[in-house]
Automatic annotation (TrEMBL):
<dbReference type="InterPro" id="IPR017871">
    <property type="entry name" value="ABC_transporter-like_CS"/>
</dbReference>
<keyword id="KW-0812">Transmembrane</keyword>
<keyword id="KW-1133">Transmembrane helix</keyword>
<dbReference type="GO" id="GO:0005524">
    <property type="term" value="F:ATP binding"/>
</dbReference>
<dbReference type="Pfam" id="PF00005">
    <property type="entry name" value="ABC_tran"/>
</dbReference>
<dbReference type="InterPro" id="IPR027417">
    <property type="entry name" value="P-loop_NTPase"/>
</dbReference>
<protein>
    <submittedName>
        <fullName>ATP-binding cassette sub-family A member 8-A</fullName>
    </submittedName>
</protein>
<dbReference type="GO" id="GO:0016887">
    <property type="term" value="F:ATP hydrolysis activity"/>
</dbReference>
<dbReference type="GO" id="GO:0016020">
    <property type="term" value="C:membrane"/>
</dbReference>
<dbReference type="InterPro" id="IPR003439">
    <property type="entry name" value="ABC_transporter-like_ATP-bd"/>
</dbReference>
<keyword id="KW-0813">Transport</keyword>
<feature type="domain" description="ABC transporter">
    <location>
        <begin position="5"/>
        <end position="233"/>
    </location>
</feature>
<dbReference type="InterPro" id="IPR003593">
    <property type="entry name" value="AAA+_ATPase"/>
</dbReference>
<keyword id="KW-0472">Membrane</keyword>
<keyword id="KW-0547">Nucleotide-binding</keyword>
<keyword id="KW-0067">ATP-binding</keyword>
Amino acid sequence: MEYSMEVKNLRKNYGDFVAVKDLNLKIRKGEVFGFLGPNGAGKTTSIRMMVGLLKPTSGEILINGAKIDDVERGKIGICPQELVLWENLTCRESLKLMGDMYEVPKDALKQRINNLLKDLFLEEKANTTVSNLSGGMKRRLNLAMAVIHEPEVVVLDEPSEGLDPQSRRVLWNYIKSLRDDEGKTVILTTHLMDEADSLSDRIAIIDHGELLRLDTPENLKKEIGEGDVVEMVLSDPEKNRKLVDELEKLDEIIAVLEVDGQVNIRAMNAVAKLPRIMESVEGIGVRIADLSVRQNTLEDVFIELTGTGLRE
């Protein structure tokens, strides 16, 4: 197995606070590697160390077997969450300037710019100044600038943040093409569970600076177990905790959690369990304001592991 990146016992301390605690990862060549965690979990700190922007307290990072300090700067392309653009340049000028900074040969750069403008649906805006682009177009240009020099490892930090569904689909297709057509390794941080599920070959879930799980989306969903999830909003959310305590006493309930002001109940064949669940609700003297039943998702895995929603 060939690895693009190996992270060994990575640690970052800020005084007495441990932001990242002995993180170990092996990221395979040519995979989309999802990196998930609640806000403040240590994701951004980890990523910044992994791409050489932040010095770790201890541990090491290897890129294709070489220490990160010895790696050429062009091996990694970074698309940050915050847009980094020149507002007064056109799309084509922005890509040319970025390519020149990485010393991409002139003929190769021209072809690469044309391909990127086409692949990211920016051809018609090639000569439009950045300040006149929509938010979705700016984000797609930001990605194009991150890969203009054809890096081996592409790091995408919240690439779909604030995008409309159409722009998101363009972005997803391009990320898949980076892996499938160009053999790139893509490291993806995202708040969107369907994005992580759809794009990632494997997913690492991190919380409090520690790695909780690393597996394929399919295996992670199997780990939490089959079954359905009942999402319930009570007329009096103050009673959520009391309902959780009551439902935990029932043998037929696999798990019950309070998440974002609602009660999530996981059970096999949940619809058949609803009458018994309703009895518990009535027993604490409260009404149901809203109720839905759905299948187990990656979001449920995340909540089970971290006890929180991704945006909390």
